[in-house]
Amino acid sequence: MASTTNLLFLLLSAFCGAAAAQQRSSNISRGSSLTPTSNPFWLSSNSLYAFGFYKRSDGYFLGIFLNGIPEKTVVWTANRDDPPSPRTATLQFTTEGRLRLQTQGQTKEIANSASASYASMLDSGNFVLYNSDGDMIWQTFELPTDTLLSGQRLSAGKELISSQSETNPATGIFRLKMQNDGNLVQYPVKTPDTATYAYYASGTYGSGDNVTLHLDDGGHIYLLNTNGSNIKNITNGGLSNENLYLMRIDPDGIFRLYSHESAQNGSWSSLWSSTNDKCAPKGLCGVNGFCVLIDNRADCNCLPGFDFVVSSNWSSGCVRNFPEDSCKSNDGRAKLYTMSSLENTWWEDSSYSTLSLPTRDDCKQACLDDCNCEAAIFENGNCKKQRLPLRYGRRSSGDSNILFVKEGSSEVSRSGSKGGPRTYIVVIIGVSFVSIALFILTISVGVQEDLRYWECWID
Questions:
Q1: How many of the other CB atoms lie within 10 Å of CB of 67?
Q2: Which of 138, 282, 160 is closest to 215 using CA atoms?
Q3: How far apart are CA 341 and CA 351, in angstroms?
């Protein structure tokens, strides 16, 4: 009996020792390193998540991605606005406990923290640095980019920012902010946190100064206040704990809940989104562009007389396709312009003057007569004069307004680029000078030939 007990004890000890060794093996010690082409990442112990280099067409980025499924889904990127690294780059967890990226003779700190004793890629998808006491001193869960994973939270005052595209992780043009007033709100980037620029809100304003956004293992997105009480269910939750879930603000400005089946050959599916209106995100079409829904798909168009700056990138906005010229001609008379019209569109109200006018033709003429007016919105007897650029445009059948946009007439177009007719005058004068010089040179050569002839004849 004693021998059996001893044998069982030895087996349990061996098993526990092996389990502990496996746990230790998931830890990353000082002196470890990664390169894009050999030993490119550190795996979590469940082999689901990886921290390291992932490839894009123009190089390598450093981040966290799902390695345990066919779709290598990126959930976090370090220094996302830096250019991609070449294949010769190296990530080092130095002997001093610093996490550094070395590329083309430059060194960049990845984690702004105290010296770490070891690191670990956790099964939750969180990459963590620890001190010698085993306390977390830095973690990616506290520095999200565009995604939240199960068990992760978005603290008050922090925000998720979309990527530029599905293949470019650089900072995009939309943000989701957990405000200090308790409201969860979506805005375009580089705008104040005010209702004017919002296009989604949780409606929890005034719920406290420490509200946090959470995603749990059952696909439940919710808000907790400072007391830990649930103040808002964003989604219902109660889904299978066997699936993977993530929440992301996508490049199109909509934040969505995604689910991935636990099976290896599964795929991501969208379970919930902040809006079904793909034209709702303000700024999707850039300045001087407006969004139109076609079969529930967002499509961007430019104002009349405008073209996209970059045809493949709507958010780059639109610019005039005719020369900009002075509103007044040299003799002080107004030049001829035309006004194009666009009905049933909504734009940000950035008018510098509002007039009460009875008809749309009066509004159009008022803009034509005003050199400062580049567009005007007429609605319900109000004529709102606007300067360019116009922002946040979208087709809206519920708006009965009409937008007038000033365009150059054929006379203005013939005047050429900046400088107008003066450019042609300069060219004509230049050509004239060249012609005169060639004429004088020809005469001088002829005279010299005649002198040589007479000198030879006299001799």
A1: 18
A2: 160
A3: 17
Question: What is the C-alpha to C-alpha distance for residues 439 and 230, in angstroms, rounded to an integer?
Answer: 91
Query: Do 368 and 357 form a contact (C-beta atoms < 8 A)?
Result: no
The 10 Å Cβ neighbour count of residue 300 is: 20
pLDDT in tens, 368-420: 999 899 999 999 999 999 999 999 999 988 778 999 999 876 554 444 333 33
Reported as a single tens digit per residue, the pLDDT across 185-234 is: 999 999 999 999 999 999 999 988 899 999 999 999 999 999 999 999 99
Predicted TM-score of the model (pTM): 0.81
**Residue 247 structure tokens:** 């929440």
Cis peptide before 389 (omega within 30 of 0): yes
In the predicted model, is pLDDT for residue 14 greater than 90? no
